[in-house]
Amino acid sequence: MSLVPVSQQTIMTGLQESLFDQFCKELVIIKAPSVTSTNNGGYIPGYNLQGQQDLTYTQESGIFSGVRVPNTLDGRVNEVTEKSVGIEEITIKVRKPARDYILDGRPVEKIIFHGNTYNIKSAEGPRFFLTLTYYLFKLEVTT
Prior knowledge:
- The chain has three helices and ten strands.
- The strands form three sheets. Strands 1-4-7-10-9-8 form a six-stranded antiparallel barrel.
- It is an alpha+beta fold.
- The N and C termini lie far apart (48 Å).
- It has one domain.
- A hairpin with a 2-residue loop joins strand 9 (116-129) and strand 10.
- The chain is elongated, with a radius of gyration of 21 Å.
């Protein structure tokens, strides 16, 4: 049971969602390509028979929204280090559909966020705000 009345929860979660929508950027999650094969003729894997095997690579990606969360050091934003050294690692906040797509068991090849390409470094887990749930992921810059 919450100490915040339901009417106030509705207002506060609506404001939180509006804030997320205001600052969100496009997040393109590119999965490793899936491979499908078709056998033409009597091809048996491991044997050099006259049949032909066609391999098809299918690239899959999803487009979601995400918000960059400032990296912190002892509770303070570490802006000086990010500006002076260059951004090597960022943290993003996403909603459940993006989290489910990232963690669906297929490897993520790369993530494109705010014009840069990243790899997933780690999943930081859920963050709760009243009835809302967001998920954090640490990303590292790829070269």
